Amino acid sequence: MTSTIELGEIVGGGPAMMNLAELLATRLLVQGNSGSGKSHLLRRLLEQTGNLVQQAIIDPEGDFVSLAEAYSHLVIDAAEHTEMALQAAGERMRVHRASVVLNLEGLDADLQMKRAAAFLGGMFDVPRSHWYPVLVVVDEAQLFAPAAAGEVSDEARRASLGAMTNLMCRGRKRGLAGVIATQRLAKLAKNVAAEASNFLMGRTFLDIDMARAADLLGMERRQAEAFRDLQRGTFVALGPALCRRPVTIRIGTVETESRSAGPVLEPFRPPTEQVADLILAPLPEAEVMQRAKRPVAPPPPDLLTQLATHGASLAETDTSEEEDSVDPRERRQQMEAVLRDVLAEDDGGFRPPASLYQDFLVRCRIAGFGRDAMDMKSFRRALASARSGISVEAAESAEWQEAEAVASTLPEDMQGVFLYLARAALEQAVCPSDTTIAKVYGTHSTGRARRILGWLEEQNVIVLRLDGAGRRRAAIIGLGWETLPGDPGL
Question: How do residues 406-417 score in pLDDT, each as one tens digit?
């Protein structure tokens, strides 16, 4: 089976070919203003590869649902499913090797980000035996991996950005090949865009976007003006799956059509009726609400029925007392053990809290704790304590409760780092290194770890000291605990 597909033609002569096997290993970034032909390009790519590789499409506007009839894609309407159901769907589509269109149309930005993150998280977390190649196309990627915080909640932005980062940075080993398309490079998170090795740059007009596109293609800044002159459906291509030098290509035709095609210009015909009567017509009077009839109370039961009902209520009371007899402390310790098992996985320390929460709820249901074992706010507090590494017994001590009281005054993402330092100081262990702090926070950047420590010191909750050998100590203000000296660079 060939792995080469034809995207269109090179401007100046010759077909524009793409090596699918190389694309799966190196990922693709598509950029262009609205109307430049991005959706047409993605549709051409999906049609050409529809019978060659499994596909997953994150579709915020419902543009690609028409692929279902021609290529047997399963269309999942995200508005009809919960995040947990979508995470399970992401896992199952890889297990059963089905191509899927996740239709996010009609949802607000916050829900789009959360549900796309849940679906991508499910695809990412399947067992190794199901790591088959999947082409993951994300349209309007700047919505799911924004460069800066917007009007959406911080929880949604973190979950979505974490899922997109996993897709582009760590997805290759799991068979996930990201193809992301965006209208604005300046609005797309740089760590997501930087992982792509293939580029298709379309028409754009803003200087900042032209400059970033030129930098990605290795062009000089004075050549960036050429992006303004590109025709619709024409892109500058570069990458190992496309070509070794920038060339201009024109995308070929497609077989399917989008549901949301742009408006068609037709001759304007003004209405012949009286416009004022049509537009300024009085509003209809509100209809009188019909009150529902009150149900007639049934006659009181006889004495034997009352006795039987009373006996049943007593039996229910006995059952509830048996359920209440479960020791709350034991139950809490069991749930904390489940949480520690989730964190003990290979990538548990780097997964966003929303993804960990979904995994935690599933395991709690398996353990018999019910669907609502812990709400998200309580989970975040428990997660911060679990990240600290404190033992279950020590977590019940009065000293540790004081440390958690101090942590509660900090932002949620900082509590885990503070408690980790507090645990090391309480046990008089060596001061953790920058690499360890980064892992506790959920990042690979030691520079961010140093900034976090500096921020905690500015908040007057810790004091850092270096001795003559360059070893670092961390003292917890107000509690009187201090770590042993440790090498920050280990």
Answer: 888 888 778 888
